[in-house]
Amino acid sequence: MIISVTLAAGEGTRMKSKIPKILHKICGKPLLEYVIDSCNRINVDKNIVVVGHGAEIVKEYFKDSSLIFKTQPISKDAPYGTGFAVMQAIDEISDDSIVIILYGDTPLITEETVRKLLDFHRTGNFDATVLSAIFENPEGYGRIIRDDEGNISKIVEDKDATTFEKEINEINSGMYSFSGRALKYALGKLKNYNSQNEYYITDVIRILNDEEYKVGVFVIDNPIEVYGVNSRSQLALCEKVIQKRINEKLMLDGVTIIDPDNTYIEEDVTIGSDTIIYPGVTLEGNTIIGEDCIIRGNTRITDSQILDRVYIESSVIESSTVGYDCHIGPYSHLRPDSHLGQNVKIGNFVEVKKATIMDNSKAGHLAYIGDAQVGKCVNVGCGVIFVNYNGREKFKTIVGDHAFLGSNSNLVAPVLIKDWGYIAAGSTITKDVEEGDLSIARAHQVNKEGWVEKKGFKKRK
Question: Which residues catalyse the reaction (predicted)?
Fold first, then answer.
């Protein structure tokens, strides 16, 4: 059995936030979720998270997950330290398990690294394995001290290191793998006889080493993976790294991203081959983009499905679906629960909300289509408003196939425009329109001769 124990009890004071540090997001996902995802991808059997500050908020966020939460006591009299945090999970650790110790604020750790750490641990038949990294500037990190045969001798904290030891650039990441039996044994012998009155997980390594358990060190390939988040600037740095990973994977899969540094795409977004993403585009949530699409300008798409060969420019699409060969924008807004069929055009400054628009229909500009069902081959003229709200309730408008909605028309719901219905420009429609009828609903035009001059608006010559 493989068990992960992720330490996530820190207060994160340098974030200066009401939100627990591990819930701050990178590319749409909390820091903690990246760590757990890396474990899940290698089929860890049990994920334990040790929480402390903001514990209830964290638990609520992950209430639908299979995570096992252990709460570290927080009081002025309670001991602290990484060793004490791991102790909170001891009743979940079996003797025959392998335990991985990780941190909730290190989102860059990858599944490949966790898998390699486990493989190294198993292959070497180690009781404990330290994950180390080579840093050009190791200041502030504990150093890995090796003996003449290259085995780990001890871990020395930066503040306790000698001048010679400070020159060592192999650092302790704070991440480990243990045999369950060895870890439980060493945790039982931990003491907090130090200036901080804390229990340190590094002392577990010392205890096992002193008692001639087999302790190994696995050097990580890419040291950036052990980078932690303690401030907003570090959060931004990690966001850049993860964004680069996402974009590179998409480009390897056949997506063209014109300017990766100025394109924001979250991890759960999928994009088909030969789609082109221009600078300024934001793709969020569980968005699916098909093949051969072009997305330009300041477009934001969230939790939506866009099928193949769709062109979108400078528009917002939220929780909606867009069919094949549609043309959206510029400056269109598809609000939640909008559904477009094939070859639909939604043009300049058109807003659609909770509406279905069928194949080959178009709304070229300056229209509002809300709470509606619009049939095939319908023309929605400039300035058409679907009047769906009376101040208390929403009502639905149904427009049949091949209808024509003239410019500046108002359709006051609930109302039905049947197939081939024709609405004259400037009409306010409050009654159903039968198939093939022309509906004119506007006041009779009256021209008052000489009225402007009589009112003195126009000066006489």
Answer: 365 (proton acceptor)
Q: Which residues contact 434 (CB under 8 A, 6 or more apart)?
A: 418, 421
Neighbours of 38 (CB within 10 A): 24
CA-angle at 419, arms to 415 and 422, nearest 5°:
75
CA–CA separation, 97 and 34 (whole Å): 23
Q: What is the CATH number of domain 2-226?
A: 3.90.550.10
Provide the pLDDT confidence category of residue 195 given band limits of 50, 70 and 90.
low
Cβ neighbours of residue 60 closer than 8 Å, sequence gap 6 or more: none
Here the tokens at position 146 are 């090796």
**CATH for 232-439?**
2.160.10.10
Residues annotated in the binding site for Mg(2+), as ranges? 105, 230
Angle 180-188/201-210 helices, nearest 10 degrees? 100
Give the Cα separation of 457 and 13 in Å (integer): 68
Strands 282-284 and 300-302: parallel
Query: Distance between CA 101 and CA 57 in Å, rounded?
Result: 22
Annotated binding-site positions: 7-10, 21, 81-82, 103-105, 142, 157, 172, 230, 335, 353, 368, 379, 388-389, 407, 425, 442
Higher pLDDT among residues 198 and 66, named by residue:
66
**Rounded to 10 degrees, what is the CA torsion of 62, 117, 237, 284?**
-40
Active site residue 402: no
Question: Phi/psi at 133 (nearest 5 deg)?
Answer: -145, 155
| Tokens representing residue 389 in the block | 């709200």
Give the confidence band of 445 by pLDDT, cuts at 50, 70, 90.
Answer: confident
pLDDT value at 456 more than 90: no
The lowest-confidence range among 9-13, 93-97, 129-133, 349-353 is 9-13
How do beta strands 362-365 and 345-348 pair? parallel
Q: What is the distance between the alpha carbons of residues 333 and 315, in angstroms, rounded to a whole number?
A: 6
Question: Can you tell me whether residue 392 is helix, strand or coil?
Answer: coil
In this prediction the pTM is 0.90
Q: What is the mean pLDDT of residues 264-284?
A: 97
| Marked catalytic residue, from 121, 333, 365, 402 | 365
Cβ pair 199, 87 in contact under 8 A: yes
Q: Where are the alpha helices (DSSP H) in 224-365?
A: 232-252
The phi and psi torsions of 438 (rounded to 5 degrees) equal -95, 130
d(C-alpha 399, C-alpha 438), whole Å:
14
Domain ranges of the chain: 2-226, 232-439
Query: Could you tell me which of 218, 209, 196, 180 has the C-alpha nearest to residue 86?
Result: 180
